[in-house]
Amino acid sequence: METRELVYFVTVAEELHFGRAAERLGMAQPPLSRAISRLERRVGTTLLQRTSRRVALTSAGTAFLKASRDALDAMDSAVDAARQAADTHPLVLAVRPGQDPTLLAAILRTFDDHAAGVPVEPLFTHDQARLVRDGAAEAALLCSSDDLDGLHTTDLGPQSPVALLPATHRLAACPAVSIDTLRDLDNFDDRCPQRPLEEILDLVALGRLVVIVTDAVVTGPGAAVVTVPVTGTPASRLLFGWAAPTPRPALAGLIGASRRVAVSRRRRRAAA
């Protein structure tokens, strides 16, 4: 039995009219009628009752219609799976600067353990959600306060804002600092520069920049830069987001890696 025979039958069954079905298939009616008759002989039963006025499905035809649709869907899925498995082009992940570099590193390590051969290219930007919707990135690390319209997401856990300040700054020893206080500083930037974290820390240490990042950015004792919790900003959660309704295998693997890392982090927090 050929795939085209199933396509012919499904089309006729949906139209219940050989003329309209032939037109939809882009073929003449006589060859279509002969193909259906040949299919019925192969199946060994009548699938369509034909009169001069109407075409109707028999009970066998109704059952065969469902099975034919399932078979065609399965064939389409098989073709898609094969194409996706052969697709090893880089996966672009949009990330906001200063957004939990340890989490990103953990996700990429976990992903590499399960999907070697597909490189992930981080793209540092403040427009992660838009880039995913536009197709410039396949996925993104997002904040729950971002515009998530049209995106699928999985929760990676809470995130708290901290200010990066020079260790010598007058606010460096404060237990917390308000967002309004930070906005009054001449060198405060409410959008973290799209630069590597090392460069951002250098600018802060030189007193040229004060920014807000997530509390995952940790500075050690005696460092030139300190982190101070920020008050007056809404609580938020970190999300992994993507747009594709059926992610290709590489993206599905990255989604799974992000979930595994999130579960591991929750367990560590609960045990602490």
Report the C-alpha radius of gyration, rounded. 29 Å
Number of domains: 3
Low-confidence stretches: none
The helix fraction, in percent, is: 40-55%
Approximate strand percentage: 15-25%
CATH class of the largest domain: Alpha Beta
Name the CATH homologous superfamily of the largest domain: Periplasmic binding protein-like II
**SSE-based structural type:** alpha/beta
Strand order within the widest beta sheet: 4-3-5-11-6
Pattern of helices and strands? HHHEEHEHEHEEEEHHEEEH
Shape: elongated
Average pLDDT score: 87
Main beta sheet = 5 strands, mixed
Helical segment count: 9
What would you note in describing this structure?
A hairpin with a 4-residue loop joins β1 (48-50) and β2 (55-57). The chain has 272 residues and is an alpha/beta fold. The radius of gyration is 29 Å and the shape is elongated. α5 packs across α9 (249-271). It has three domains: 3-85, Arc Repressor Mutant, subunit A (Orthogonal Bundle); 91-159 and 235-271, Periplasmic binding protein-like II (D-Maltodextrin-Binding Protein, domain 2, 3-Layer(aba) Sandwich); 161-231, Periplasmic binding protein-like II (D-Maltodextrin-Binding Protein, domain 2), CATH 3.40.190.10. The protein has a five-stranded mixed sheet, with helices on both faces. Strands 8-10-7-9 form a four-stranded mixed sheet. Strands 1-2 form a two-stranded antiparallel ribbon. Helices cover 44% and strands 20% of the residues. It has nine helices and eleven strands.
